[in-house]
Design a protein that fits this description.
Layout: H1 3-6, E1 15-26, E2 29-40, E3 44-48, H2 55-62, E4 70-75, E5 82-86, H3 102-106, E6 110-113, H4 125-130, H5 141-146, H6 148-168, H7 184-197, E7 202-206, H8 214-230, E8 234-238, E9 253-258, E10 261-266, H9 293-297, E11 302-308, E12 312-318, E13 329-340, E14 343-346, E15 357-362, E16 366-371, H10 377-385, E17 392-397, E18 400-401, H11 407-412, E19 415-418, H12 430-436, H13 444-447, H14 459-471, E20 479-483, H15 491-502, E21 508-514
Parallel strand pairs: 3-8, 3-9, 6-7, 7-8, 16-21, 19-20, 20-21
Antiparallel strand pairs: 1-2, 1-4, 4-5, 9-10, 11-12, 12-16, 13-14, 13-15, 13-17, 17-18
Length: 517
């Protein structure tokens, strides 16, 4: 499908959603300041803004997950409009049919996906999609009890519809797989499909391309194009700065959120081949660098690429003098095999033979491991951290075996990890979180957030705090292992992250990222 060719032909119809005078503040900090917006049928909106500008806050408000301090929201996706004005008087909450909650807003045809896909891991892909369908028999235990045949027919019907949707996602053979056994790209496609099956007429997507490799991005773009053209779904997308170019052929409208207000710009389809899914075919790309790579390598660094099994690549960044006298490895992995159940995740070669995975980090290196989604980057991190059992192999830190040590002993010896998820205490303030990590010399950007609770921060701000605390813990690190450290960062935040990584006290650093896109 030529994404760039059809957005000009899509008519922008009636208004589906209108917001007037939205105001929101957290702890005295104004996030939205009398914001107005209008969303029309058939639009594909790219919602842009710096980290902390309020993009996720706005999505939370428009989807009923957060009640604004003031303003009004009008939903017109269905034949019967519904309006909410804020602040809402207390007596409105006495009406069981008039609440401002995600459940009530969802009935207006408004759905969303999250930065972290939220599937039921123990359930099959078929069940994950079918359970979202309106009128699912599981919602009515009385029907299941007194009309079991009717309930069974309805469940079978929904299962067939879910299978058809999975076939559309090129997952027809995975319908009986549990959701915890698929790659991140597949997970995101299933989450989007579930929202559509649930009746979405307006779909808000929070970073749908984040963390995906070339193939994953192409698959998600193709799905979004189908939803707009084939299903008539109106989209509002928040996406990482470095992934926004992939959306240019799809987006019809640009919303720039700045200083608490929206600036709207209508776009025309560019028809640019570089934004079409077929151009993301890995076979047509040699070695491509992530957009932040130039910030990390600089002009005075030597870059060495090493091809690894199953489409992965290790890129070493080091000063030219360091390559002349490589010291002993600070981290060494020998013949590592890691399995999840009967499936070997780490340790297979290109032919599928079990040979073990080998990797060494040298002092002074910043190494970048790029691999496709589903390759096992997170599994490798968990195995090195002591959170995932190792089937065979050896892990050494400064020539000392640590394979049998528990996670906390590895941390004491200097194995420092920053996960891709923002694992911090949501109810604590930022200064309390960084104090627990032993980080007493916070940067100005982190100090500015000190008095706010972690849960009130935007995704980019949370990532900034997590990365700062992880790189500056009380234990002197030997190796820093960072899982997607630039995820959710704009250009300015990426610059700050690069400076923090380069100034880290750790002799070795390993970054785990998706394949370059």
């Amino acid at each position: 499908m030529k994404i760039g060719a059809f957005c000009d032909t899509l008519p922008h119809g009636r208004v589906l959603l209108r917001a007037e005078g939205l105001k929101q503040a957290f702890g005295g900090q104004i996030i939205l300041d009398g914001l107005d917006l209008e969303l029309r049928e058939g639009e594909v909106v790219l919602l842009r803004g710096e980290n902390g500008s309020g993009k996720t806050t706005l999505l939370n408000i428009l989807t009923g997950n957060l009640e604004p301090d003031a303003g009004a929201i009008h939903y017109h996706a269905h034949s019967t409009p519904r309006s909410y004005r804020f602040p809402r008087p207390w007596w409105r909450e006495l009406n069981p049919f008039d609440h401002f909650t995600p459940e009530f807003v969802a009935r207006e045809g408004v759905r969303r996906t999250w930065q972290e896909p939220r599937l039921f891991g123990a359930h099959t892909l078929r069940d994950n999609i079918a359970v979202a369908a309106p009128g699912h028999p599981g919602e009515n235990p009385v029907l299941a009890l007194f009309a079991p045949s009717r309930s069974a027919r309805r469940e079978t019907e929904l299962g067939h519809k879910a299978d058809a949707m999975l076939a559309r996602l090129s997952l027809a053979r995975r319908q009986d797989s549990s959701a915890d056994k698929i790659s991140l790209g597949q997970t995101k496609r299933v989450a989007i499909a579930r929202a559509v099956v649930a009746g979405a007429r307006i779909l808000f997507l929070d970073e749908p391309l984040a963390g995906l490799d070339r193939q994953g991005i192409g698959d998600v773009l193709e799905l979004l194009a189908f939803l707009v053209r084939g299903q008539g779904v109106t989209l509002v997308i928040v996406e990482h700065l470095f992934n926004q170019p992939h959306l240019h052929g799809l987006v019809t409208t640009d919303w720039l959120l700045k200083d608490g207000a929206i600036r709207r710009t209508d776009r025309k389809g560019r028809g640019d081949d570089s934004t079409r899914p077929h151009s993301l075919d890995p076979s047509r790309v040699s070695i491509r660098r992530p957009a932040w790579f130039g910030l990390l390598a600089g002009e005075d660094m030597e870059v060495v690429d090493e091809l690894l099994p199953r489409g992965a690549m290790l890129t070493r960044i080091r000063r030219p003098a360091a390559s002349k006298h490589l010291s002993k490895p600070v981290l060494e992995i020998r013949e590592l095999v890691v399995s999840r159940g009967p499936r070997v995740v780490i340790g297979l070669d290109d032919r599928g033979d079990r040979v073990g995975f080998n990797l060494a980090l040298y002092e002074g290196d910043i190494s970048v491991l790029q691999a496709p989604n589903g390759w096992g980057k997170t599994t490798l991190l968990f195995a090195l951290a002591g959170l995932q059992a190792i089937s065979q192999g050896l892990v050494q830190l400064r020539c000392h075996p640590i394979t049998s040590l528990p996670a906390w002993e590895r941390a004491k010896l200097g194995m420092q990890f920053v996960m891709s998820d923002n694992h911090s205490f949501k109810g604590l303030r930022v200064d309390e979180n960084i104090a627990l990590a032993g980080y007493n010399n916070a940067s100005p950007g982190v100090r500015a957030l000190a008095g706010r609770t972690f849960s009130s921060l935007s995704g980019g701000e949370q990532r900034k705090v997590t990365l700062a605390a992880g790189l500056n813990s009380a234990v002197r690190p030997v190796v820093n292992i960072l899982d997607e450290p630039f995820n959710a960062f704009d250009h300015s935040a990426s610059l700050d992250a690069v400076k923090a990584i380069k100034s880290s006290r750790a002799p070795g650093t390993l970054l785990l990222v998706p394949s370059a896109v």
